[in-house]
Specification:
With 245 residues, the protein is an alpha+beta fold. The protein contains six helices and seven strands. The protein has two domains: 137 residues, no CATH class; 98 residues, Immunoglobulin-like, CATH 2.60.40. The longest helix is centred in the N-terminal third of the chain and has 23 residues. It starts with 5 loop residues before the first helix and ends with a strand.
């Protein structure tokens, strides 16, 4: 007999049920969120796209739905450790403003005498998103970024299969204490065979020793999990794609 544990099904039910309320409400008030929603999407667009959230509107729907799930568990006895785990999970999914959004739901809940419906709270939430966007934009501007690739340009379709290294240059030095390279959207089959990875150029470049074959599409993603500055600021996620001759 199948067994359905509450921890497995309940968050999903709450999540999907919330969409029936949140999606129409945000669509009705889209103009109030457009400018700041687009600004936030610039910073986390890659993380959103990996979850099939291809627009700022979808991102805002998802963020408010996820915050609502966390607020539900706060109201129904979840402990601080459980709540922090939920916040961390959503932050790692790219919703880095999730804690502020949950705080907004708490503020709304504490002022129901003033805001009888959530729609009446929309102007306040819109102002909160202006602050979210400003902070996220400032943080995103501090992130190190990929400046260039020495051996070819990104998305090149005529890369020599004889090259033995891929040298990636950053706009500022990293800590040099590790690396994080993941599969891209094309999956494991497009991931190049790596022999070694090391830093050079005073940690402003990383060299990947590779073995390539002819007429093949390659793809991989550099993430900020381990590519960080000395101050701990993570690299802005960057996907590299190319095809050999």
């Amino acid at each position: 007999m199948p067994i359905y544990e509450k921890d497995e099904y309940l968050p999903t039910i709450i999540h999907e049920f919330n969409h029936s309320f949140i999606n129409p409400l945000l669509a009705k008030n889209e103009e109030a969120f457009e400018e700041n929603g687009k600004e936030i999407y610039k910073a986390v667009g890659y993380e959103m796209s990996q979850q099939a959230y291809g627009s700022w509107q979808t991102m805002l729907n998802e963020s408010l739905v996820r915050a609502s799930v966390i607020k539900y568990f706060i109201d129904h006895g979840a402990n601080e450790t459980e709540i922090q785990m939920m916040l961390n999970k959503e932050t790692n999914n790219g919703f880095i403003w999730i804690k502020g959004l949950v705080d907004e739901l708490r503020q709304y809940d504490n002022q129901r005498n003033k805001y009888s419906t959530f729609e009446s709270y929309i102007p306040v939430l819109s102002n909160a998103y202006k602050i979210f966007a400003e902070k996220i934009s400032q943080y995103d501007a501090q992130k190190p970024k990929v400046e260039s690739i020495k051996e070819f340009t990104n998305d090149d379709t005529k890369v020599s299969p004889k090259i033995k290294t891929i040298t990636i240059n950053f706009d500022k030095p990293l800590s040099g204490k590790g690396y994080s390279v993941n599969y891209g959207s094309k999956g494991q089959s497009a991931f190049p065979k790596l022999d070694n990875i090391y830093y050079t150029n005073e940690n402003k470049s990383v060299v990947m020793e590779v073995q390539l074959v002819t007429d093949k599409e390659y793809q991989f993603v550099l993430t900020g999990k381990n590519f960080k500055t000395e101050q701990g600021i993570p690299l802005k996620t960057y996907e590299i794609s190319f095809k050999t001759k």
